[in-house]
């Protein structure tokens, strides 16, 4: 039986993967070739297990495939066609995951590129009123866990994999903390930002301080934009961002915290 924290993560992310308004599952941004390639992962802090899929195509709920990788295989990461074959074998729902809006924004961006103009689109969300990569952290009273799912960056090179399936880069969970990140994946991977947040919490910082410190470090090392959400084993949480937006919802014992806002570091850590 999967632990309740893993089920909770999967259920939360499946809803977002099925929505066209988030850059994951159906609604993912398109790569240079006009295809959706997605990354997703689950980190279980209690068992120390991690599993991910990378550059997977045609599967509506990549985070569920990541869970199956954890539960049914000895592998940690499955990528590309191998991940798709595994998902098909286990009967996961298929879809080309291309929403009409993402397709039309991609077509315009390609026309601009062909004319030597800048592609006029939000790299992370594809569309102005859409949201980015999704992530979730959970403490179920027994352990901490994190999960994330994304279509990556608009117009990425086919085969490009971001930080979402990179343990320590865009996601981490231990007995100390659960952390998820969004933003320019390459910067998160090269700075091991999610692991850094865990280390800071382990050394005694509150998750809020750890998230802010990690974002400042990311900005000073790489000049990158992003958002970080962290939770510790005492149920304390924190979040900070310097990207255009970073909507966060916190639920405690089934109740949503009213008026919760992540700390906005955009003024301080502006990306030019
Ligand atoms: N971190 C994701 C990636 O680089 C994208 C994002 O979070 O916006 O693939």
TrEMBL record:
Q: What is the top-level taxon of the source organism?
A: Bacteria
* Protease is among the record's keywords: yes
Q: Which UniProt keywords apply?
A: Autocatalytic cleavage, Hydrolase, Protease
The UniProt site entry described as Cleavage is assigned to: 132-133
The keyword Protease appears for this protein: yes
GO cellular component term of the entry, any: cytoplasm
Please name the SUPFAM superfamilies in this protein's record.
Answer: N-terminal nucleophile aminohydrolases (Ntn hydrolases)
Q: Know the name of this protein?
A: Asparaginase
User: Molecular function terms in GO for this entry?
Assistant: hydrolase activity, acting on carbon-nitrogen (but not peptide) bonds, in linear amides; peptidase activity
- Active site per UniProt: 133
GO biological process assignments: proteolysis
Q: Source species, please?
A: Pelotomaculum thermopropionicum (strain DSM 13744 / JCM 10971 / SI)
Q: What is the lineage of its organism?
A: Bacteria, Bacillati, Bacillota, Clostridia, Eubacteriales
Q: Which Gene3D superfamilies match?
A: (Glycosyl)asparaginase (3.60.20.30)
Q: Which residues bind substrate?
A: 160-163, 182-185
